[in-house]
Amino acid sequence: MIESLNKTIMLENIPLNMKEVRILREMRIPGAGSLDELPEQNIALYIKNAIDLGYALIDSKVVYRTFPLVCKKGETPGLEDSRSLFFGKKIAGLLEGCDYVSLLIATIGPALPDRADELKKIDPTDSFFLEHVGGWAADHLAEITDVRIQAECAKNGYKTTRRYSPGYGDWTLDAQPEIMRLLDSGKIGVSLTDTKIMIPRKSVSAAIGWLPNR
Fold first, then answer.
1. Angle of CA points 57, 208, 68, to nearest 5°
2. Rounded-to-integer distance, Cα 168 and Cα 144, Å
3. CA distance linking residue 208 with residue 81, whole number of Å
4. pLDDT tens digits for 153-212?
5. How far apart are CA 48 and CA 153, in angstroms?
6. φ and ψ at residue 124, rounded to 5 degrees
7. Which residues, at least 6 apart from 19, have a Cβ–Cβ distance to it below 8 Å?
8. How far, in Å, are 104, 145, 202 from residue 191 at the CA level?
9. Radius of gyration, CA atoms only, the chain
10. What CA–CA distances, in Å, run from 164 to 6, 11, 49?
11. Torsion of CA 24, 129, 134, 202, to 10 degrees
């Protein structure tokens, strides 16, 4: 039984383990596996403060749902309720051979990006590092959801494709409004600007295909 098939799953208060080495990779700081190994200890202190503040501000929420894929000969794959959602060649190629697709939206909430905006006026360095912590946390939240979907796939005799988000390749941000509608993104407080950027800005949307194990 596919738990998320045509049913929106909502998750809240998902614990995030902010490993220092992952945060350093996010910031493209090479050669250090922890903050103690950084030669610039003033930078290490900024990052530690950003991580500690991140834990206090992040309000993690996710929605995801799995849909049967509809694919007619000579057409790109789509959903029964949204035939033209996967309009790019790369996303269409990724979903080739899939029976289902899971759509997800993950957000860390508005408090962290709002605080980063406030800090920009007081201490731009604090704001800079907090922004990076927030970006990593949003991506990590999408990874956690991806792993959950992988487990559901495996139980039902499937494997997943890689996660693919609007804004990559030729699957442009024009896909965002439809994803927001299909997942009722307002349930987790996510909306779009006029330019189709998600608010809160530390949010991630993505599609994951289900390939049968044959």
1. 125
2. 20
3. 18
4. 999 999 999 999 999 999 999 999 999 999 999 999 999 999 999 999 999 999 999 999
5. 37
6. -55, -30
7. none
8. 14, 20, 12
9. 19
10. 20, 20, 32
11. -120
Are the C-beta atoms of residues 208 and 105 closer than 8 Å to each other? no
- Sequence-distant (6+) residues with CB within 8 A of 91 are 164, 169, 171, 207
Residue listed under structure tokens 């559901």? 152
Structure token digits, residue 138: 């949003």
**Does the pTM of the predicted model rise above 0.90?**
yes
Question: Could you give the C-alpha distances from 134 to 63, 142, 190, 200, in angstroms and in order?
Answer: 19, 13, 16, 11
Distance of alpha carbon 4 from alpha carbon 155, whole angstroms: 12
Q: Which two tokens stand for residue 122?
A: 């007081």
Tokens linked to 189: 């407080």
- Residues in Cβ contact with 154 at an 8 Å cutoff, skipping those fewer than 6 apart: none
- Listed in sequence order, the residues at least 6 apart from 45 whose beta carbon sits closer than 8 Å to its beta carbon are none
Taking alpha carbons only, the member of 109, 103, 212, 108 closest to residue 164 is 103
71-85 pLDDT per residue, tens: 877 778 999 989 999
Q: How far apart (Å, rounded) are the C-alpha atoms in residues 68 and 79?
A: 7
Binned at pLDDT 50, 70 and 90, residue 118 comes out as: very high
State residue 184 phi and psi, 5-degree precision: 50, 60
